[in-house]
Amino acid sequence: MLKKERYREFVEYFSTHNPEAQTELNYSNPYELLVAVILSAQCTDKRINQITPALFDRFPEVDALAASSVEEIFSYIRSVSYPNNKAKHLLGMAQKLIAEFQGEVPEKVEDLVKLPGVGRKTANVISSVVFNKPAMAVDTHVFRVSNRLGLTSRATTPLAVEKQLVKFLPKETIAIAHHWLILHGRYICLARKPKCEICPITYFCKYFEKTYQQKAG
DNA sequence: ATCCCGAGGG
DNA sequence: CCCTCTGGAT
Questions:
Q1: Domain ends where: A102, A129, A156?
Q2: What percent of chain A has pLDDT over 90?
Q3: CA angle A167, A170, A173 (to 5 degrees)
Q4: Residues A35 and A124 placed together within one structural domain of the fold
Q5: Cα distance between residue A29 and residue A198, in whole Å
Q6: Catalytic residue flag (residue A63)
Q7: Which residues form the HhH-GPD domain (predicted)?
Q8: Which structural domain, as residue segments, surrounds residue A50?
Q9: Mean pLDDT in residue range A85-104
């Protein structure tokens, strides 16, 4: 199957079966989403959702977070991955938001990545989810699933995957396709043992084709 | 042992 | 490009 056809099948299937796909991180405003996404690095969303209620209760606004300390923030996030780094990033992020962005989460990716703890992936999440921009955030799931399905070819870096997805996906589906890929990777196309036996989209999957297709003759 | 919505620094 | 950070689930 041609790559172009895989894209068509991909959009056709998920726009029909999951037109409301969205993040599973709990948040109620851009500031909270930014904090949650920074915390989510190398950590399950489920774990993040377990600790953010107390965190947001203590730091309901950017100002409260900026006025805190690495030690106090650490005490709220000690059960996530890399709590020391993330405590420093959150404090620095909050202080920079106030110093340079009037306490508001900026809209441009180029501004977002200036914030401590915010790399390209996090910036693209904020850009697409908060500001409805056609940005593709490539995390471990998007990277793995795109390559398995055959939506990308010879893409060895997250940036290469991002460029190909943005190029070949219909513009209006880029933001939601991020969530389609995440959710598919999280529940079906698992990293260690993909559940091909229950996967509904093997009919256009390159990985399934290569792995399970009977050889002629 | 490997993975989870990575980022920063060398 | 590489390495480090670093907790919990499977």
A1: A129
A2: 94
A3: 115
A4: yes
A5: 36
A6: no
A7: 39-187
A8: 30-129
A9: 97
